[in-house]
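Private note to self, pasted from the team thread so I don't lose it. Backbone tokens:
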């Protein structure tokens, strides 16, 4: 049962084709999946580590190395979180009322603010990865820890703040999350990954991306909640992207820089 629930979470928030093996009909299946998000992050991180190993074997230049990791990262998630970031940026930077911001975020068309925000964030991720790539003792922990910690920040956002709309798939995630139990359960993969890697990598290579992701993610969660009066599925994605960017930036600036 647990593995099936994890599989459903993977199918809904990544592009990994596991959905072909299970029945995904009905939004009711999203109930109680919040606590599995960090575990999905662990899977994403492990796949990125494998991709990183292949790129190293190909002797790719550092710039290409960082760009390939960033593109694979987007592909793994189906760009679902980037889409949420861009929709959220269109709403937030419109400087309209909360109600109007939420209407803008529902528009499937991407505006100028969304495009600019997406480009800027992707640029920061790529440059950070290019900076980290030559340092294998930093790159591996960053690739593993960052997606896990970012999704714990998303879980915190889901549990901590009200849902800003009356309806939407994100409401199911929010309404079915138990606090604090799910936050504790969601923290297990982060703790396990950190402890396991401390046997092979420097402590600061684990602490810095963890702290960067959690700090950036929680700051984004609180800031967006103030502006929107809560959160939506789009802003959940924005929190993930901003948390990941915070982790990579912190690693690049504090350690690799």
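Design output:
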């Amino acid at each position: 049962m647990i593995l099936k629930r994890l599989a459903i979470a993977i199918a809904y928030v990544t592009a990994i084709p596991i959905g072909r093996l299970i029945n995904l009909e009905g939004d009711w299946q999203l109930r109680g999946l919040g606590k599995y998000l960090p575990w999905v992050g662990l899977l994403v991180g492990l796949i990125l580590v494998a991709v990183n190993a292949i790129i190293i074997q190909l002797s790719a230049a550092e710039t290409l190395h960082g760009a390939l990791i960033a593109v694979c990262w987007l592909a793994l998630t189906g760009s679902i979180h980037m889409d949420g970031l861009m929709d959220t940026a269109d709403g937030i930077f419109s400087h309209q009322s909360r109600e109007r911001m939420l209407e803008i975020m529902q528009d499937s068309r991407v505006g100028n603010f969304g495009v600019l925000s997406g480009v800027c964030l992707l640029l920061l991720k790529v440059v950070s990865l290019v900076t980290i790539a030559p340092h294998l003792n930093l790159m591996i922990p960053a690739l593993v820890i960052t997606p896990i910690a970012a999704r714990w920040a998303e879980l915190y956002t889901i549990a901590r703040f009200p849902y800003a709309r009356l309806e939407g798939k994100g409401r199911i995630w929010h309404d079915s999350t138990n606090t604090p139990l799910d936050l504790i359960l969601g923290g297990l993969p982060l703790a396990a990954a950190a402890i396991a890697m401390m046997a092979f990598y420097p402590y600061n290579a684990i602490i810095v991306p963890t702290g960067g992701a959690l700090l950036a993610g929680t700051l984004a969660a609180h800031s967006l909640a103030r502006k929107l009066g809560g959160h939506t599925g789009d802003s959940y994605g924005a929190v993930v992207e901003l948390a990941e960017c915070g982790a990579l930036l912190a690693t690049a600036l504090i350690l690799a820089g």
